[in-house]
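Protocol step 4 of 5: obtain the predicted structure for the target chain.
Materials: sequence only (see below). No template structures provided, no constraints applied. The aim of this step is simply to have a reference model before the mutagenesis design in step 5. Sequence pasted as it appears in the construct record:
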Amino acid sequence: MVNLVAIQQPLIILLMKMAGVQTHTVEIDPGTVMNFWLPNETLQKPTKNSKPTTIKPNPDKPVVVLVHGFAAEGIATWQFQIGPLTKKYSVYVPDLMFFGGSVSNSPDRSPRFQAECLVKGLRKLGVDRCVVVGFSYGGMVAFKMAELYPEMVRAMVISGSILAMTDSISEQTLKGLGYSSSSELLLPDSVKGLKALLSVATHKKLWFPDRLHKDYLEVMFNNRKERGELLEGLIVSNKDTIIPEFPQRIHLLWGENDQIFKMELAQNMKWQLGENTSVEGISKAGHLVHIERPCVYSRCLKKFLASLPVDEPQS
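Step 4 output (structure tokens):
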């Protein structure tokens, strides 16, 4: 039987190309490859005897990197934001390790490893400076990226995420949602489990036929062993948690009805991060704020991006 999600892939590739991005695979290290969606103009057509090559992004268009969460790869997460951004910005959408076409033979499953791979990939694509937009799991990767590579990350927009998943936050969050483990919540293996995840991730309940849920599970939840290890690699001890001093501007863009990481957490994080941090809530939206209220989210995102000072052009 035809998978209704998989059969849409050729159409999505075409639509994304029309929106301004194409897919390209980058070798990070031997045994580690990362898939990116990158601006059309940076990807040069292959000749008869060579592979596609890339060039630096347009210096007149600031780079924005959109980093996905745990339940979907890059394009599925950011499909509604790419089109509104590509006119003024060079948009890069990575698939983190073990999502989309990105794989690694490294045993490292930490957010630090994801951040290191992402930066290596971006540098190979000619990106020297960028604004990083991170959602949920991708927000933790974005924070780590900004901490390790402040010379690359000029600002951040974070949605539905935290600095680090401490054991106390993990326990409190899961208990509040009625789950015993992160894997039970974020790696559903049944239609019932996927419906439950969507229920806690959205403000307005969405309805899809069971067939579509089943097909989504087959396509989006591969590499289950490695993803389970990624969840284990997220948890850090409370006593090992140190809040970095970020020099970048940080904008916390939140769904006011987020049940997973509540609005109060964003307010508290703003206080922890200091005066360079701002917070903004979007009403009638839960954890999947960028999907539930895509037009409002894109408008808020573009407003923040437009408020940033003009950066030095990439050489």
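Step 4 remarks: Residues 111-124 form the longest helix (14 residues). The CA atoms of residues 27 and 271 lie 39 Å apart.
Proceed to step 5.
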